[in-house]
Amino acid sequence: AELDKTAAVVPESTALVPAPVDIANKLRYLFGRNGDYTVADAYQGTSWSVREKLIDSFNKTHEHWKKEDPKFIYYLSAEFLMGRSLINTVYNLGLEGEYAEALNQLGYEMEKVADAERDAALGNGGLGRLAACFLDSIATLDLPGWGYGIRYKYGMFKQALKNGYQVELPDIWLTKGNPWELRRDDVKFEVGFGGRVERRKQGNKEVTVWTPSEKVVAQAYDNPIPGFNTPTTSNLRLWDAVPLTEFDLSAFNAGDYDRAMLERERAEGISAVLYPNDSTPEGKELRLKQQYFFVCASLQDVLSRFKAVHGNNFDLLPEKACFQLNDTHPTIAVAELMRLLLDVEGLDWDQVWTITTKCLNYTNHTVMPEALEKWPVKVMAKMLPRHMEIIEVINEGWTKWLGGHLNDLAPEERTKRIAAMSIIHENPWNKEEMLVNMAYLAVVGSSAVNGVAAIHSNIVKDEIFNDFYQIFPSKFQNKTNGVTPRRWLAWCNPELASLITGTLGTSEWINDTEKLAGLRAYASDKAFQAKWAAVKKAKKAKLAELIKKVHGDEVNQNALFDIQIKRIHEYKRQYLNVLSIIWRYKQLKKMSPEERKKAVARVCVIGGKAASAYDMAKRIIRLVTAVGDVINKDPETKEYLRLYFLPDYNVSLAETIIPAAELSQHISTAGTEASGTSNMKFQMNGCLIIGTWDGANIEIAEETGIDNVFVFGVRAEEITQLRKERKNFKTDPRWDELMRDIEGGMFGDKDYFKPLVDSVNNMKVGNDWFLLANDFASYLKAQEDVDACYKDQSEWLRRSIMYTAGSGKFSSDRTIREYAEDIWHVTPSRPTA
Ligand code: NBX
After folding, report:
1. Catalytic site residue 677?
2. Cβ neighbours of residue 799 closer than 8 Å, sequence gap 6 or more
3. Annotated catalytic residue: which of 53, 536, 572, 596?
4. SS3 state of residue 584
């Protein structure tokens, strides 16, 4: 008999089950718990319950997109630094009332429950977090788009302190399961490595066949991304590497268990761990494998969906799909898309090149020359022999075309220019070795190339890729970064959000941050300032609680909370910050108790991870902790100055620190920080900025009012000359004094700090590359200006309000709208609610 199909229709998931019951059900049937819950249980029950609402919304969105078949943007990124999901999901879906109430009924507080979640830390820093903010905006703006990346088993290492030194611990984040992902057992692709390439005759056509010597399977996991205030829920598809066959059964049967396990380990190794380096490429074969692994799976996935709808009409591909390369990490996509269309689909070179370059776009995130990825031809030829061939052919065509294009140059000049622009070139440090310059491959293979802040995009055009810019000026664009105002203001600072909403009479600013400008009218209003100050005070109390928990110290909550949080790097100059703190300490020591009472008290916080192999960065961390150990114990000054290093800086910690900050430091050497994005998060939360004329600081100052920002230091245009002259630079006597203090052991560990002192003083080896000494005096002066301003609380509060009011531009919604219009050419497609 016919089955009654209607009976099999699943009801609207949990829609009819009240949330408290549903949470209890999840705990009972997924975890076998019956009452007597812990907070961790409450988190599990809540998130597995919320997950179902998320999946409903995800399914509706994707049914709609399947029907509409709009053009999609695929954001290819080796990193997505998502942080926690519970609060974000509940708030973005508008379920906060329901779940807060449900948890109350069960005897829990949403905030405490949310704290039980582990961060998804599949990224290093700015680049990875930017990708996460972009996904939030893509979904919120109803743009058909997905992220594609790697489901690392171990994310960014956890940082602990041992006697003040950084130690790295593995981030085992998946042990308790992950309610925010869906394994797609029907979405798997083979990815090959190594082997050989042959030409074969097929009829009257010659075809190329690549036979890899090693194969693994990419298994898809979907991570639904809820938009805010919209029915759209988008997707982040992450790939896990698994062996082709569960076991080599013949080996297993023969009792050769080691060999049976080997393939599994080799495969799983590919997606096992995130490389913890945020500025220098690893150069390891496994890293190249990771890059190819996720790019290959992602492109196959997109092409298979395309073919299901459009068959072999590949000329249509650029109208249906475009890919954004998040820095050079996914650049092998240029060769892989070529390979798939040439060898698998059988199209011809010219057609494939046109399609490929129309589909791809590249974002550069750094100006550091050492950060630009280059892979030895040897390594690539061995691991990806067909791709190496394709890159060689691309480069032949490119250099030949260049030759024609540059034919009015003198012959030697022309040869030089072509060599300088060749995708494959000699290693300048080892003439024997040839390298593939991934950035050049990305520039040549893309339609658009962009930097991430106005000054950075100019450096991209005028310096890093100037030769290319001269030839293709219209390829180069600027897309100033932004951050999501949901996570970074509304959800992490609900107290400030509700004050803003109450004052503006609408919460529309959460979708339209330009509306924050309405706060300018209240900046000098004493009653409003008092409310604004009360919010800051409450957030400072939370941070003080955290400091107490980590360091056991009570801090003066009336002190100025002064924060620098970001990866530890010489160019970001945490060292300069420490020097000014030491200077402040010494001044306090010289004062009489009466004079001290008039000084502005400060609680300084520094946080950030050092790449495991970055020796100098680790010494900087130790300097922070060593200086803190001395200062924080000094009975004469500890009321007025503290310095704490907060370990394991991550997204969640940032959500606590940023709302509490009154002053934040963005003090990179001018021209080195591509953009910075925490500066935007601080600005949104009414935190004043002390910073150099660098990255997005410049645009933030323009929007906030330049007089409201503490700007110091030399300008980017001066750097080259100043580096040349640094040997003859007359250092400030205060600088010399501080160097003697550190060298003399004022903070102990003098041998360990010696290389730090040398790094900014030993001019014989061309040191102080980041020009700390040059900016030192103007930095101290800017710090005095900070103190003076803080003494006038009304002026300080006025500025603080002006920061939030001026932050409208820095929503990632604005950034994504610009990408969508100028680069991707995708338009919104919203499912019906
Ligand atoms: O990208 C960062 C820049 O330093 C920031 O100025 C910028 O705001 C941010 C977003 O555009 N770059 C960055 O975070 N790079 C990396 O994380 C990175 C990671 C791995 C790697 C090289 C760089 N191999």
Report:
1. yes
2. 688, 704, 708, 789
3. 572
4. helix
Reduced to 3 states (helix: H, G, I; strand: E, B; else coil), residue 65 is: helix
pLDDT in tens, 170-184: 999 999 999 999 999
pLDDT tens across 371-399, in order?
A: 899 999 999 999 999 999 999 999 999 99
The answer to whether residue 781 is catalytic is no
Give 267's contacts (C-beta < 8 A, 6+ positions apart). Answer: 216, 217, 241, 242, 243, 244
- Phi, then psi, of 448 in degrees rounded to 5: -130, 145
Q: Is 482 in the pocket of ligand 1 (CB under 6 A)?
A: no
Give the torsion through C-alpha atoms of 250, 251, 253, 256, to 10 deg: 170
The span from the CA of 43 to the CA of 115, in Å, is 8
pLDDT on residue 763: 82
Question: Residue 717 contacts by C-beta under 8 Å, 6 or more apart in sequence?
Answer: none
Domain locations in the chain as residue ranges? 1-68+89-117, 71-84+119-161+175-481+820-824, 485-810
Distance CA 25, CA 49 (A): 9
For residue 135, pLDDT beyond 90? yes
Q: Whose CA is nearest to atom 20 of ligand 1?
A: 278
Could you tell me the fold of the domain covering 71-84+119-161+175-481+820-824? Rossmann fold (3.40.50)
What torsion do the CA atoms of 810, 816, 820, 824 make, to the nearest 10 degrees? 120
Catalytic residue among 365, 479, 596, 642: 365
- Supply the residue whose CA is at minimum distance from atom 19 of ligand 1: 278
Tell me the C-alpha distance between 804 and 688, whole Å.
10
Strand boundaries in 671-823, DSSP class E? 688-692, 710-712
pLDDT digits (tens, 9 = 90+) for 661-686: 999 999 999 999 999 999 999 999 99
Q: Give the confidence band of 1 by pLDDT, cuts at 50, 70, 90.
A: very low
For residue 21, what is the enclosing H or E element? helix 19-31
> Tokens standing for 238?
């992450």
Which CATH code fits 485-810? Answer: 3.40.50.2000
* pLDDT above 90 (res 3): no
Tokens 């057992």 correspond to: 185
Task: Select from 246, 256, 247, 244 the least CA-distant residue to 213.
Answer: 244
Give the residue, out of 127, 288, 373, 672, with the most ligand 1 atoms within 8 A of its beta carbon, to mutate for a pocket test: 127
- Ligand 1: distance of its center to the CA of 799 in Å? 29
Q: Which residues sit opposite 233 in a β-bridge?
A: 226
Burial code (b: 16+ CB inside 10 Å, e: under 16) for 533-559 equals: bebbeebbeebbebbeeebeeebeeeb
Radius of gyration, alpha carbons of the chain: 28
Alpha carbons 374 and 362: distance in angstroms, whole number: 16
CA distance 405 to 200: 35
Residues 180 and 120: their CA atoms lie apart, in Å, by 10
Averaged pLDDT of the chain = 96
Taking the centre of ligand 1 as the mean of its atom positions, its distance from the CA of residue 624, in whole angstroms, is: 23
